[in-house]
Amino acid sequence: MIVGLTGSMGTGKSTVANFFRELGAYIVDWDELAREVVRPRSKAWKEIVEYFGKDILNKDLTINRQKLADVVFPHKEKVARLNQIVHPEVFKKDERITNKIKSRDPDAFVIKDIPLLFELTRPLPLDKIIVVSASEETQLRRLQEKGMSREDARNRIKSQLPLEKKIKSADFVINNDGPLEETKKQVEKIYSLLRKG
How far apart are CA 160 and CA 66, in angstroms? Predict the structure, then answer.
């Protein structure tokens, strides 16, 4: 079974993914894959530097994620361009990892933690979709706790597809506004349902 896990910034996707991992699920973290495909001198890295300029680089030539975010997130067309560059490379890497997992464990329960699942440039074969939700106030608080200004946090949230639209396309919704024990119970229930199905 292959399940897409998404939400919006600050909804707590990573927390939910970790709960699934504890239950025995394999996790494919697309944020991690995206970091890997933009290593210095990679195909995606070259395209990003060509399009967004060298000002986004650190001294060691790695991409400064904060500088890139500052350039990209206020502009939807720049977000779209960045996704056009990064997503094809992430798709390739994701396919290799998924095939490796499935060949080792044909009954694997795979969670693909994909922040921009609904904004992908092409469809991804998934059996089910889980959306992690939280109120905007909770999202803003969590992002501020990570060091982001309230305005930056609001801009980042607004740059993504609205959470309500994602929820409408979900097979399951996990509300992550309350205590972690409640979130964990929701994860366990969904995992159990999907494992039976």
Answer: 17
Q: Closest by alpha carbon to 15, among 183, 194, 191?
A: 183
Q: Are 27 and 111 in contact (CB under 8 A)?
A: yes
Inform me whether the pLDDT recorded for 197 exceeds 70: no
The ranges assigned to domains in the chain are 2-12+38-196
Tens of pLDDT, residue by residue over 144-188, are: 999 999 998 998 888 888 999 999 999 999 999 999 999 999 999
C-alpha to C-alpha distance for 194 and 56, rounded to whole angstroms: 42
CA dihedral 189→193→194→196, nearest 10 degrees, is 140
Question: How many CB atoms are closer than 10 A to CB 77?
Answer: 8
The H or E element containing residue 2 is strand 2-7
Question: Which amino acid, one-letter code, is at 65?
Answer: R
Query: What is the CATH topology of the domain spanning 2-12+38-196?
Result: Rossmann fold (3.40.50)
What's the predicted TM-score (pTM) here? 0.87
